[in-house]
Amino acid sequence: MTGPRPLGPLIHSFFLDHLVTVKGLRAASMRSYRDTIRLLLCFIAQDKKTKITKLTIEDLTFERLLGFLRYLENDRGNHVRTRNQRLAALHTLFDYIASREPEMLDVCQRVAAIPMKRAAPAETHFLERDEVQALLRGLPRTGRHALRDRALLVFLYNTGARAQEVADLQVRHLELGETSVVRLHGKGDKWRTCPLWRQTTELLAELIDSPNAPPEANAPVFSSATGEALTRFGIYKIVRRHAGHLDDARTNRSVSPHTFRHTAVISPDSEPVRHVGYGGGRARALRVSGSCRYPQLPSPRDRVDQCRVPGRAGGVAARRRRVVGGARR
After folding, report:
1. What is 36-69 written as a DSSP string?
2. What is the DSSP string of 189-254?
């Protein structure tokens, strides 16, 4: 060892060489790592009372990592799930440091041994079918963005798409016709195809229809007043503007775009979503995603069946509960 080694080159190679080149992470994942490491560097610099530009590799001590995790929960008021997400990013960082700096192996092994904290799963809120129908009936039919907002809410209810998937949606991802479908680009760089209802098809066709020229293939489906694609923050504001009155203080329900995702799962109107290129090209039919939390949500039909056959192990409700993701358990 010839003296203190600057931390900058190591962090730079972690992002460019490891996260981008080796792991091939998408931009959203890169921003998550960036935010975690930015908070860590600011904390260490404040603890050492020095500038971030003067930090060295030796400043990454195990005690500081524990202090950083306490700082997230106690000072910043982060939830346990946020703390665990930050810790997962730090595990990745210190795994990389262990492969580049053998002198830091002891610290890296101790950091890798820090466990995730147990946390109760997040509450899953959804809208009942009559609430969605009342919401759609009450949407304005005139105005500059009335058509866009109506198409957006119906599209969310139809597909259960994430806000970022809607923000990334382009005209070339739509196939409008007798059997209309949409291709959604989601988390993990996965594509899936979802059927569209006739009402959704008509609204989208009217939305992208241009009196002057056909829309370009890479044009956004949902755009702002400036013609640029809506961001997920803009989508959130639109949902809050029209559906904010459906908040329920008794259940802590705050309606957001993700509420429509949960609603699409339990709705008897929802269509199955085919995951394309998932698991070696094998297509799998689920309502919205492969997450195991969604099939556990009782649909209105499930609740009726459960009331109809209480205590019967071989009844309809029991059979429905054994069917998860299209396969019997």
Report:
1. HHHHHHHHHHHHHTS-GGG-BGGG--HHHHHHHH
2. G-EEEEE--HHHHHHHHHHH--SSSPPPTTSBSSB-TTSSBPPHHHHHHHHHHHHGGG-BTTTTB-
Say what the pTM is. Answer: 0.70
Is 312 marked active-site? no
* Annotation says 76 is catalytic: no
Round to whole Å and give the CA distance between 12 and 35: 14
Q: Taking the chain (329 residues) in consecutive chunks of 10 residues, what is each chunk's mean pLDDT?
A: 83 95 88 96 96 95 97 96 96 96 95 93 88 94 93 96 95 93 88 93 91 79 93 96 94 94 78 42 39 48 40 41 39
Q: List the catalytic residue out of 23, 26, 31, 187.
A: 187
Active site residue 23: no
Given a contact cutoff of 8 angstroms between Cβ atoms, the answer to whether 274 and 193 are in contact is yes
